[in-house]
Amino acid sequence: MERGAVALAEFPGPFDLQSTVESGQSYLWDRADGRMYEASGAFGGDAWYETVVRVEGEPAVVRVRQVDDRLEWESSADAAPVLRERLRLDDDLPAIRRTAPDDDVVESAFDAYWGMRLVDDPAFPSLISFICSAQMRVARIHGMQRELERAFGSTVEFDGRTYHAFPTAEQLAEATEAELRDLGLGYRAPYVRDTARMVADGEARPEEAVGLDYEDARESLTRFVGVGDKVADCVLLFALDYLEAVPLDTWIRTTIEEYYPDCDRGNYADTSRAIRAAFGGEYAGYTQTYVFHYLR
Q1: Which of 73, 128, 154, 260 is the most exposed place for a label (fewest CB within 10 A)?
Q2: Residue 237: which of 68, 5, 1, 24 has the closest Cα?
Q3: Helix axis angle, 123-131 relative to 229-239, nearest 10°?
Q4: 267 CB contacts (<8 Å, ≥6 apart)?
Q5: Which ranges of 101-247 would DSSP assign to H, the alpha helix?
Q6: What is d(CA 154, CA 54) in angstroms, rounded to the nearest whole number?
Q7: What is the three-class DSSP state of 260?
Q8: Contact present, 287 and 251 (Cβ < 8 Å)
Q9: Model pLDDT for residues 130-167, shown as the tens digit of each residue
Q10: Can you list the alpha helix ranges (DSSP code H) found in 16-161?
């Protein structure tokens, strides 16, 4: 086992681990105490969080907790670069906040969860996670991903325990619809199976969206089965570095109705353009994530 610490003072702005991994952005982390997504408004805790990453193609466990001004980690590999990337520690959070609108709801959201970062998850697990997210509570979405890992993911031994990596597209493509339904995926089961098969067969990869203009990138992701504009925006924001993306889910639509009614243009594309402009443009997805976590 390797151990180490990341000094948070080396990075621009504050950082809060709990809100970053328990704010509905990522379903690839788990709490060692089993209390992941137990309560809304997560912030400021010092629990251990665990995930399985791939280092040079092989699964490796990463375990991390925040203690004051540092991240303490334990891993079967060097976790420091993984944490730096996955938790977006290099993002200049104060500069990003300066792009946000100066209004009460946004300021209150940033004040309440100051230090929350966006995540940078791998694209395929993010895609599958958000296909599973339709009409589901965050705790249930998280539970679905754990079931997929246990049923189809590769195992890795660490610190006397067996962990499961998120299944590759090839592993998940072997699943039957019945098997996925038995894991609780319901009507999402064929979407997950067919999307995995598209990736495994080389028909399409979510990473192909990278480098396209934002709206073209969103359209690219809607090729996958079960992926509409909202799911595509989640993957763009939380996995593909499109920080302007604003997923228009129920919470954000309610926020628009109550606080930004002029942004409601009656359809997804035009409403998206309007709320992105209202939320600051280039980093609108950051503002959205703060508002989502604040009002959820």
Answers
A1: 154
A2: 24
A3: 150
A4: none
A5: 104-112, 123-131, 138-152, 169-173, 177-182, 189-200, 214-221, 229-239
A6: 11
A7: coil
A8: no
A9: 999 987 899 999 999 999 999 999 999 999 999 999 99
A10: 17-21, 80-86, 93-98, 104-112, 123-131, 138-152
Write down the residue that tokens 């309610």 correspond to: 254
Specify the DSSP element, H or E, that contains 30: strand 30-31
Q: Rounded to whole angstroms, how far apart are CA atoms 14 and 71?
A: 12
Residue 3 main-chain phi, psi, to 5 deg: -135, 155
pTM of the model: 0.96
Q: Distances in Å between the alpha carbon of 276 and those of 67, 171, 273?
A: 35, 37, 5
Q: Is 112 exposed, middle or buried (0-12, 13-18, 19+ CB in 10 A)?
A: middle
Cα–Cα separations (whole angstroms), residue 149 to 168, 205, 223, 225, 237: 10, 20, 24, 20, 23
Q: Tokens in use for 11?
A: 């990075």
DSSP annotation of 185: -
